[in-house]
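Ticket #4471: structure export looks truncated?
Reporter: QA, pipeline team
Priority: medium

Steps to reproduce: submit the single chain below to the structure queue and open the exported record.
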Amino acid sequence: MLHFDELTKEKIQYYVYGLIDPRTNQPFYIGKGKGNRVFEHVLGAIKGETNSDKIDTINDIRSSGYTVKHVIIRHGLTEDEAFKLESTLIDFTNYFTQKLTNEVLGHGAFKFGLMTANEIISTYNAVPLESLHHNVIMININGSYERADGGVSIYESTKQAWVIGEKRLPSIQYALADYRGIIVGVYSIKDWYKVILPGSKRTRWGFNGEEARDEIKALYLNKSVKHTKKRGAANPIRYNL
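Actual output as written to the record:
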């Protein structure tokens, strides 16, 4: 099993690395660490670590008779530098080349990660949303919308699966998608359906809908709700400002 000797570990400090599939010579995982962190993923697969996309890929490579390639992309970094470079490379690879097996986008991704120019403008110049003109549900999609994936729409990230009181459902007219404190989607709700999640004892709901009319979107889209958020609030669902 590959490993770094003590002198090498001391000299390279923090580093950013990629796990490469030798069959395609493409990265399937990017990480940061120090010491022998880069080698721990394959070791975990050999020891029977809990399945994940990363572990499944490693096992598939090994079962095909190949060995995972370990590439040190940059070393001699501080921990903060390594965090930022790791996050940048994850964003770039996911968006422009292929989806990595990383389950987390990277340190600071939601605040400083990949955004279009329009999203940058909206983030720093959004007008505060001061009032709600309809019965709406505001859904924070930070955890479900992976912007760097490039294949997950805002609508798909917003429509399910949420814990909502069933009696409240008939009165909700519109769903507002809140991403990083900005309303990025406004949807007219047609109907609701139950979502069954394995192992969950709570009823969750999803909705079928469509983009709201332009005059409705003009009231909410690209408006900021950052000023309305309570520090430490964890519930992704809100019904008022």
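Status: closed, not a bug. The export was complete when the record was re-opened. Leaving a note from the reviewer for reference: The chain has two domains: 6-112, 117-238.
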